[in-house]
Amino acid sequence: MGYVDWEFAKTTGRALVPAGPVVSPGEARAEVEAIRAAARSAREPVAETARMQTPPDAPEALVVDRATWIAVNVDSMAALLDPAVDAIVSKRGVTVGPAAQAVGGKVTGAEAGALLSFMANKVLGQYDIAPNGTPNLLLVAPNLMATATELGVDRADFRTWVCMHEETHRVQFTATPWLREHVIGEARHLAIDLAPDQERLQEIASRLTERLPELFAEGSTGIADLFTTPEQREQMARLTAVMSLLEGHADVVMDDVGPQHVPSVAEIRRRFTDRRRGAGAADRLLRRLLGLEAKMRQYRDGAVFVRGVQEKVGVDGFNAVWTSPDTLPQPREIADPAAWVRRVHG
Fold first, then answer.
1. pTM value?
2. Does residue 130 come out as left (phi exceeding 0), alpha (psi in the -120 to 50 range) or beta?
C-alpha cells in the first residue's frame, strides 16, 4: 500500500464523472473512427507547418471515454509522484504505520479522483507523457462531441481542429527526445520541494481564512500560492514557461494549419474563445482555486511568445527553442520574445 491509493482514485473518479452524451452504439463507433481518422490526417500537415521531423512509426491515437482518461492519468500521476513521495518521506525520516498509511492513502486517493473527475468532462485531448510507460495521444470522444454541439460548430471541422492542436504536442515530444525526461524531472523535483514541513503546514492553516478571498480573485494562480516560498514560485515559473511554450506553440500551429484543412476555423476559434471566457461563476471560482485558470493564460501568453519570435527569426529560427533545456524560454522571456531572440540568436 502506497501513500496514495491510486486504485481508489480511479474508483472515485469513475463514480463522480458524468458519462457524457447519450448516443447509440453505432453512433459511438462512427464517432470514434472519425476521430481516429482526423488524428491520422493531422500528422503530415502539422509536421510540415511546424517544420519538425518525427518518427514515422508513431502509434495511433487512443480514443477514450472519460473514465478511461481518468485511469490513464491516475497511472501517469502515480508514476510521476510516487518517487517524489518516497523521496519526501526518506528526507523527513518519518515512518507511518500500515493502518494510518491505508487511511491516508484512501483520503489522498479520493482527492485525486475527485480532481480528475472535474477535469475529465472538460479535456478534449492530451499527449500523455507516461513517465513509466509508453507516451501516447489521447482524444476524449464524449467531450469532443459535447463541445462541438455546445458551440454549434461543424463536428468534423471541430474534431480536425482539436486533433491538430494535440498532434502538435506529439510532434513536440517525439521530435525533441530530451524534452519528455526534462519535463518529468523538473516536475518531480518541484513536487519534492513543494512538500511543506509541519511548521509550514501550521503557517498555511493559520493563513488560509484570511487568504481565501485572494485565492478566488481573478488572476490567482490558485491554492498553491499558500504552499510556496519565493524560491519555489521561481521554480514553478520556469516550468510554467515551458508549458506556456508547448501550449502556445500548439495553438499557433493549429491556427496556421487550420485555414487549409478546416473551412470553418475562424468561427470555431471565435466560439471556442468565447466559451473559455463565458464559463459559469461556480466553474470560474473552482478553476481559480485549483489554478486551472492560469493554464488558460498559458495558451495566450505562449502563443504571443511563439508569434513574436517567428516574426523576428521565422519558423526555423524559432525551432532553435527545441535544441536543449538551455534554449527553452525563461519566465521573463515569455512576455518578451525579443529577449529570447537576443539570448539564443545573438
1. 0.82
2. left
HSE-CB for 301 with a 13 A CA cutoff: 21
Instruction: Name the grid cell of 71.
Output: 485511469
pLDDT at position 288: 45
Complete DSSP assignment for 319-345: GGGGS-GGGSPPHHHHT-HHHHHHHHH
Spell out the alpha helix ranges (H) of the chain.
6-16, 25-50, 66-92, 98-120, 141-151, 155-175, 177-194, 198-215, 230-261, 265-277, 281-290, 292-318, 331-334, 337-345
Residue-wise pLDDT tens digits, 272-311? 887 765 444 444 444 444 444 554 566 688 999 999 999 9
Looking at residue 185, its amino acid is G
Cβ(305)–Cβ(329) below 8 Å: yes
What are the Cα distances from residue 160, in Å, to 137, 142, 144, 150, 192?
14, 15, 10, 17, 39
